[in-house]
Amino acid sequence: MKAIILFGHGARDARWREPFDRLAELWRAQHADVPVELAFLEMMQPSLEEAVATLGAKGAKDITVVPVFFGQGGHLRNDFPVLLDACREKFSQITLSTTPAVGENVAVLQAIIDFGASAL
Hints:
Elements: E1 2-8, H1 18-30, E2 36-40, H2 48-57, E3 62-67, H3 74-90, E4 95-98, H4 106-118
Parallel strand pairs: 1-2, 1-3, 3-4
């Protein structure tokens, strides 16, 4: 089974995660056949390891991690690979892959431009 993890930074303010929760709900509504979990780098739960464990317990064998970040800053270049490698080692029966940061995708950037233009 394939699954997806939407991976964000995390914050002290619990309200910060509300868009992530909505994003996961939108995923579930549009792709009910592919399980999704949220995961956070720091300050929020679940961690990447916890999200992989949850999806693995549901039978996922192929998980794609989508970093919901604007760009490849230090966290994605330095911290994220360490976490991902630790999960690959711990969950060797699961194939873990990743995408670039969502903010590096031209379609995402265009959606932001369109959003801004609609406000004019």
